[in-house]
Amino acid sequence: MAAAVRGRRRRPLAGAALGAAATLAAALLPLAGVPGGGAAESGAGPAGARAGERAGAGRSLRVGVEAYGPHPRQRVTVRWQPRREPRGGLVILHGGYWSYDTDWGGWARTFARRGYAVFELDYRLTPDAPWPAQRDDVVAGLRWVRRHAAGYAVDPARIAVLGSSAGGQLAVAAAVHGAGAERAAGVVALSPVALPYRAWRDGGAPGATAAGRRLRASAERLAGCVPDGTAAVSEDRACRRAWRSLDPRRAASGRDDAPMLLLHAAADWVPSYHSEAVAAAERARGMPARDVRVRVVPGGGHGMKLLLEPGTVAEVETWLRGRIG
Hints:
This protein is an alpha/beta fold. It contains eight helices and eight strands. Helices cover 28% and strands 16% of the residues. The chain has an eight-stranded mixed beta sheet with strand order 1-2-4-3-5-6-7-8, with helices on both faces.
């Protein structure tokens, strides 16, 4: 793991909840029940109901927690229905400013009932370690999922990633790191903070929202240092390297990267230009336009709440079916 980068550090953020849950509209796909407790991001982590969960209509979900590394945060919660035929696997990366958990258990159950084996992947947070520990954990977790895919009747060539907000940034980072297409058949990112340095700048601009200012401080903790405002980001070489390594455009390689569906709300406080910049870099390096799609949906939801907008779940699932079945 890379050593912590030098620089002034901010105080840790509070692990506050982001919002209350809402129910899924009936006009969406028949998702075998409304996600319980996971319809909006909250401060609770996936440590809630990990055992003995039951799906609707008498179909049971098996649940297990496994370690993919030695750190206590390097854990994956698996929800699946027993079957013989190989299927697709879906890896979920929670948001939370890279500093705390958010609860995706309800949506994990929902996607598991739709036939996927679902892997909720925890990763080291900024209080544990600075970047690139978070990306390294996602890469290691995906390696673990592929290695153990047969035990969950998953085709290792049919594994996709669904990330939200900070987790969306990690999903994009995994898509472009090295040969991302070899570890994931596709990535769906909801409100990804794909450009942390741009978020840092925006959070310091006049009129920045409270969420934007909070994201600025979180990005500083992620990088492990504070930029000094120079054109080169920082005169400190280690700090400069850290921030530049957070920019997926520098790693974009076109066809070697995993296909991406990148979604934002029209009034999202993480604007769509984060994803549009990534898409432009991928297309410039040869990725077909159909493999890197940016969608702006109505409303002002962020991250997980995008799944509550009419038609969004249907679009996400259609995209997933086209890549992992």
